[in-house]
Fold:
Amino acid sequence: MPAVARQDRRMITVYAYKGCDTCRKALKWLVEKKIPHEVKAIRETPPTVAELKSAVAAFGGDLRPLFNTSGGDYRELGLKDKLPGMTSDAAVALLSKNGNLVKRPFVTGKGVVLAGFKPDEWAKVLG
Structure:
């Protein structure tokens, strides 16, 4: 379930990967809905520590929704076993340095935090 606060129609930031089909679907959805947004390449420019801390808070302290659990980097780093014992600060530091670890698309801005793309949830949050 996405963490939300009411969003105005100003710009949101969408962290996406151009090779990700889900990201392409999400960006197409935003264009169709005429929702103003800025796109950042998640691998080259991961979300900031501040954005990630805000997301952790929005998800009630749950770190797992922020991680791309199906990604190779997640598996290679053994995060399935490490994440439960990881502090929020350690997880945020890791995510802020490796965009491959972040669940994508990752949306932030104007009181909204979304990780992953589920059209019904996005419609509720972004209208």
In short: The helical segments are 21-32, 49-58, 72-76, 79-82, 88-97, 119-126.
